[in-house]
Specification:
370 residues; 7 strands; 3 domains; Heat Shock Protein 90; single chain; Helix Hairpins; elongated; alpha+beta; two-stranded antiparallel ribbon; 9 helices
Length: 370
Amino acid sequence: MMPVVQMRREANATLSSMRVNWQVKLVLPVAFVLLNGLLLFLMATLSLRDPERHQVLFVAGGGAVAICAVILWALAYFVQRPMVELQEKIARVGEGDLNVGVGFAKRNDEIGDLGRNFNRMVVQLRESREEIELLHRTQMSRAEHLATLGEMAAGLAHEIRNPLAGIAGVMEIVGRDLPTTSPARAVLKEVRQEIAQINRILTDLLQTARPHPPEIRPSDLNITVEHAVMLARQQVISKPIKIELQKDASLPNVDHDSDQMHQVLLNLLLNAVQAIEKAGTIRVTLSGLDEEAVIAVADTGRGIIPENLPNIFRPFYTTKGNGTGLGLSLARRIVEGHHGRIEVDSEIGIGTEFRVFLPFQQSAAKAAAS
């Protein structure tokens, strides 16, 4: 035998799943009044011995019947018809037709307010869909344009690199033949620096146009960051710039490509060095936040003006005279390839802080993204 508690639960579930139409809820009290009117009318027909009572009951019963009929008609015309129309239009909106509107929106009552709100909502949905479609077309066109430019840039980079290597070799031969007191040695040094700059630009261009997928494996992020800091310190040996590192010994192994993240951090550190005009400090901090590792690179440089902040991750956008505008763009691409993100805060005259967020486990990040 079924337990009493289970029977009660099933009965409550059955009652909660039953749907009572609103017309039934409204008609029940009206039907009650109508029934009373009919009873009064019946009593009036049976009470023929008392004419005065007969007239009163007859009028009361007829009035009740008339009032109920008027109420039922008013409900059907003023409430039911708009609700049926609204249901039909909502169904069309659900099918994707956003060129609909209800006709009772001109009414000056609560039903009219409902209609006007519905029409306004449909207009907003239609405008939002048009904006999304326009944005999608723009993004697709831009993606195709960037893909074409990437292929062209990759081809040009290869074509330029070959003669550039030949020029560098010739300059080395010329440098060996020049006397040590020759003033041309200073020019030769500048030429070598310019060749190295061109080579860096071509390298960034190739990595931007044809990025390599990361080789992700769990490893100590402290070691990756420390190597990048060591290289950056070599760049500021002759400058009054101090680079501080605060590691997190409690940080677990993080899934990442150490070479690519080394490239990201070195780019952020060199940008910080270039942002400090005289003396200053660069502070690198590692920490854990929930299921993410956080790498913060903060400097005491000149800062970035607010108008430039939204554009610093765009390819080829740079505020430096000798910059390529590809470093931060490539850094963000690498971080996003690790299912992470990069954020920046800056204040003029105070400094800039970049924060790189990396999930501890790539599998969990992929599952969350999907």
